[in-house]
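Researcher: Structure for this, please.
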Amino acid sequence: MYLVDTSAVLAIVLGEPLGEWFAEQCNRARRRGESVAINPIVFAECAGTAPDETTAREALAAHYDFVPLPWAACWPAGRAFVRYRRRGGTRRRMLPDFLVAAHALVERALLVTHNPGDVRAYFPGLRILAPESEHPSAQDGAAV
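Model: Predicted structure, C-alpha cell format:
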C-alpha cells in the first residue's frame, strides 16, 4: 500500500510544481496493482479545498482508497510526539504528520510525502517516497 500524506495530495489538487511528480508516482503504483490510499487524518486536512463534504469525498475517492486509521498507529504516534517535545518541539498538540507516518509504519506501507524530514527522525524504518529520490527510502533516508 502507498499511504499518501496531505502534503502530496494538496500538491496534486492545488497544481503545485511537484504535483505532477506525486501524481505520476501514484499512477505507477496503481498500474502495478498497489493500493494508493489516504486515511481520515489526510481527509480532514484536505477538507478546506472543497466546498462541501460530498464534493471532497467524490474528488478524493476518484484517486485514493479510503483506509481507517488503525488503533495500532496511535501509540507510536504518541511516543513520537513525546520525543518531539523532549527535543524542543514547540507544538503543544499531536502533529497530524505523526499520525499519518505511524499509520504507514504499522501497516508497512510506503509513505508518499513532500516533507520526509518531518517524520524520518521519529519513525526509524519507515519507508518513504519523496521527491528527493524516486526510490523508497528507510532509516535516515538511505535509498533501498
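Researcher: Any notable elements?
Model: Residues 138-144 have pLDDT under 50 and may be disordered. Residues 2-143 form a domain with the Rossmann fold fold (CATH 3.40.50.1010).
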